[in-house]
Amino acid sequence: MPYNESERVAKAAYDSEDAGAFYSQIWGGDDIHLGLYKTPDEPIADASHRTMEHMVGKIGQDSIDYVVDFGSGYCGAARYLQDELNSKVLAVNLSGEQNRRAEHLNRLAGVDERVTVVDASYNSVPAEDGTADLVWSQDAFLHAERRDLPMAEAARVLKIGGEFLFTDPMAADGVSASELSGVLERLNLSSLASPSEYKQLAAEAGLELIEFEDLSSMLPQHYGRVLEETQANTDELLKTASQEYLDGMMKGLQHWVDAGNRGLLSWGIFHFRKTA
Prior knowledge:
Layout: H1 5-15, H2 17-26, H3 44-56, E1 66-70, H4 76-85, E2 88-93, H5 96-109, E3 115-119, E4 132-138, H6 148-157, E5 158-167, E6 170-171, H7 181-187, H8 195-204, E7 207-214, H9 218-232, H10 234-237, H11 243-261, E8 265-266, E9 268-274
Parallel strand pairs: 1-2, 1-4, 2-3, 4-5
Antiparallel strand pairs: 5-9, 6-8, 7-9
Helix pairs in contact: 6-8, 7-11, 9-11
């Protein structure tokens, strides 16, 4: 299917060999999302897993039969959701390289018949209207050129009473794109959404806000941990990733840390329900 410019940029970034080497070694190539940390030096994988546990704890339905994961990466969340909820999962992701690794990991976990991976955009999800009990996404919508589209797609595929849980790195309310130039340039983005923008877009799509849990302090802590691990493992990373890529990654991570510590960024868990 044809992709728009922002989708092509994101796909190229995650399809690169450098990116595959980096994410597989620093995050373990399973769950590459922001974590909830109990201690400053906690392993990234442990904190990232805690995010999924915390999000699942917010689900209000007794039974979840079908989940659609928007921007599923290596399917770490999809496998967790399949196991935790005993549900079928449609994993929607742009990166063919990530999807191939995800399918391999799904086979190893014995869930390949329960987790279906599709090369597709969350702007145009290959799922029928009103079929999903839960739509899930972690730290993927920042790559969207039009963030109203995944909100509308979530509302479209959800059943009445279905829930939408997602996280995303955001600008704090009232912060301009010019104040975040370092963060945005690294990712080839023109802007980040804000909590108030997502609330408005979801409302326009017909989704009721249950809760936004503001966990913004975790954002600079997480990117700081990733930066520390990258610096500590540079020699090993250079066996499979280029110096240019790692230099750019570390510079970008520092921008995230600095902007987060200055209160310019936001991150947290959105919880919506489709009521009509």
